[in-house]
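Bit of a strange request maybe. I'm writing a small parser for structure token strings and I need a real example to test against, not something I typed by hand. Could someone generate the tokens for this chain?
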Amino acid sequence: MTILSRAITLGLLSLTLAGPTQAAGKSTPATPKTLANVIVLIPDGMSVSGTTLARLYQGSPLALDPLASGLMSTWNGDGTIADSAPAGSAISSGWKSQTGNIASTGKLYALPGARVPAAGEELRPVATILEAARLSGRATGIISTSEFMHATPADFSAHDPSRASYDNLTEQIVYNKLDVILGGGIKYLKPESRKDKEDMAAVLRARGYALVGNTAELQQFAGNKLVGVFGKTDAHTALSYDLDRDPVREPSLAQMTAKAIEVLSARPKGFFLMVEGSKVDWAAHANDTVGIVSDVLAFDRAVKVALDFAKTNKNTLVVAVTDHGNSGISIGDRSTSKTYDKTPWTSFIEPLKKAKVTGEGFEALLPANRLEATVDSLGAEIRALAKEWLGVEDLTDTEVESLLKAKKGEVNYAVGPIVAKRAKIGYTTNGHTGEDVVLYNYDPRGRLLGGLVDNTQVASFMAKTLGVDLDQTTSKLFLDAAAAFGAKGAQVDVDNSDTENPVLVVKKGEHTLRMPRNKSVAWLNDKEVNSDGVTVFNGSRWFVARNLVNLVK
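Reply from user aminoacidic:
Good idea to test on real output. This should exercise your parser:
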């Protein structure tokens, strides 16, 4: 065993033995009471330096600050730097996996101490804390500033080996009986954008949801089944950064969180809510410091909404933790190597405060013909825009060129380094990073989750808080269809007459049960029946809810 492997093994063993802690020197209560509600907030890709910068930029403490209770490790089952899909899945399901996997087991388990699925159980769906909460009678919801079927929200509400399977993920979320869905992605509800040509918006309305599309409609909503899909225009699949946001068309993350809590808290048995500040991660990928700060602060305001509710309600756990680090952001760069102790904090913050838009917002201001232009032809106009909107007065020709030639949708990758250089902010990568991240929580029972925890332990802790069992929920929602129906002597087949809408068909005697992929409805002898969960096909195997299996005698 290598020194690294030994260290990892000992670290994971200490986590298992120590478990959640209340405070140094105090033991954890053996059986803490369950709570009615859990709100988990995920600022995707938020490294600690981004949080520090946001605090300095704001000039006052963050709502997150007093909630800091420990650290969380973020590695995949194979020990590599985490992609958002498996990182979110670990938090939602308690299972580690690999890049792309949405609430499914993985294929490679090389991290010492990681829970390993049984042979043949790779890439199978596993229940999420949201699904377990729903089966317990609680209301459920997801919020994101990305498309609502993007990796992290999908991790709590859908299942697929690949995060890229937007059609599958969208349909599963639509049918998974959530009470609130808020985010971007209107495009993916439209039949012309889907291979199966199904109208997901029409399905939602038929299932009793109200669809809202702007801030006023969100705030005026007064029902119990809500889907809000927002964007600067219908062509935008995600919401804008908070700094660039049109407040008429796009509600803030705090506004969405407040409305979701209002709707979900009306359920007498409690609720589970996941809130993602998605674009902290996107800004970090682009090394766009202004975008990072903008959306960390927007996320923090959502945390305050959740915290204010929890402190009044006294029956709500609030957990806030990112899924992974991103970008290697640092306060100080190569230029401060010899002057770091003489550089005032204002040197880092004032260049950021001069910017009126993020890199994404700046792209919308650029001339439409920039890709065909040259520094000579458009340089003066680009410099004027940079001075007005970014507060940068000394663009070099090379920087102007980078703005002119950046691909559509990637100008933020040019703007980010330009602003970072002036603010002396360092970056090591445009990708994710593998360090531990800060864990925050508010628990009315006392601080029960702290120290260094593995990401899968957060799922276990939330499950215990709600009094639900994730493994039992998996056994209720995701039985191997061939094995379960085969044990009853039934004939199992697949109707692929519509290749984009395959249907699992089970026959026994005079009875036929038809179960379409991604839906929570089935037909027994042409009579519609409800499934406790969505029917999942993972590319090789079908998984169905136990209540459907029980229909075959």
